[in-house]
Amino acid sequence: LFAAVAAALGPAGAGREDHRRALYGTRARYRSAEELFGRDLEPLERMLNHCAGIARGLHRVGERAAEVGRGGAGEELAGELEQVAGRFAALGGDLEALGDAHDPEFVYWRTSGARGVELKAAPITVGDHARRLVLGRGQAAILTSATLSAGGEFAFVAERLGLGDAHDMPYETASVPSPFPLARQMEAYVYDGGGDEASVVSDVVAALAAEHAGNMLVLFTAHERLRRARTRLKELLPRDTTLLAQDWDGPAGLLAERFRIERGAILLGVQSLWEGVDFPGEALEILVVAKLPFSVPDDPLIEARAERLRDQGMDPFMQDAVPEAVLRFRQGVGRLIRRSDDRGVLVVCDPRLVTAGYRRAFLDALPVAPRVARDPRALAAEAARFLAGAAEAPR
């Protein structure tokens, strides 16, 4: 069914793309049907006609089935045919909207990779949808989370959700300190050793694993760097080490379950493992963050938001990229301490945490001030001493 459109867009493996592109795909933003398909829109029209024709055909068959088998299997079959017809009609509508790409409140892009060619669209801001579907449906809404503020401010999340006087949706905020003694439960380090990210992270992880046999979660911001770190760690770690890598060894959910019951395991993760997973107690004792989690600037959605902010006279980096990265950083760090008796060590392998002009927002997200380390073995020895002392302390 999709052959006509796929042929027009080009095969996923067209040309001599390197291994990275074949594995992770490419993205290209477009703003009109002509920009997407060129001047020849016949493949899109053919696809829309197919969808409409199939929907009509199924509808006719369903009507006939209902007439022939009144009150029995015929009516049940008719209902199923109507459902499928509705799906094809909806598919045609979605494809028409994706091909037209005219809504200024949406950003449109195509991806090509191992899964084929996909057309995608997303609202540039979810504020209208949040107000319509959630926030505007009651007299009040209460939003709670450990990561709603960035740099102590709620303005970023409020703007994303379409809150504020400009939207006739006033809001109030409150921040409650953690009941945990985080300053005693956690130590933090910034590793500043220089070099390639995957190699640096691998060296730090190997040193930490040699000094302490606890579970370790390593968070990356890119699949490709996770892959290279995994390859290097296979060489550096003892053969009996349990090394789990998201997507290579299974989906995030299954790996998280296995990680919880293992001891001395190392889990390499991206994206979904930065949030929403719970590793209490000995299930996680060391967290390594490979890089501050900034979004890729040429991501179509990030690019569209930046264009809109620039049109409003604002700085996209400081007013969008930084607070978004701080929230994601807080979510990642939040994986480490889950209970009042947890102890853990955080290692951030990105010196920008203590050198960049925007560092204060990230540092404020940490319950303890990080110490700078330049020798992975010395860092590992200090981390092991802290965790050993925590194990000996009464609980």
Shape: globular
Question: Main β-sheet: number of strands, strand sense, barrel status?
Answer: 7 strands, parallel
Spatial extent as radius of gyration: 26 Å
Q: How many β-strand stretches? A: 10
Oligomer: single chain
What keyword list fits this structure?
three-stranded antiparallel beta sheet, disordered C terminus, 395 residues, alpha/beta, globular, 47% helix, seven-stranded parallel beta sheet, 16 helices, 10 strands
Question: Could you describe the 3D structure shown?
Answer:
- The structure is a single chain.
- 47% of the residues lie in helices and 13% in strands.
- Strand 6 (243-245), helix 11 (252-261) and strand 7 (266-270) form a beta-alpha-beta unit.
- The radius of gyration is 26 Å and the shape is globular.
- Helix 1 (3-9) runs antiparallel to helix 4, helix 9 (197-211) packs across helix 10 (223-236) and helix 9 (197-211) packs parallel to helix 16.
- With 395 residues, the protein is of the alpha/beta class.
- Mean pLDDT is 86; it is low at 11-24 and 391-395.
- The protein has helices spanning 3-9, 19-24, 33-37, 42-68, 73-100, 127-133, 155-160, 182-185, 197-211, 223-236, 252-261, 300-311, 316-333, 352-355, 359-363, 376-392, and strands spanning 26-30, 106-113, 116-123, 186-191, 216-220, 243-245, 266-270, 286-289, 344-348, 371-373.
- The protein has 16 helices and 10 strands.
- The strands form 2 sheets. A 7-stranded parallel sheet has the order 6-7-5-8-9-4-10, sandwiched between helices.
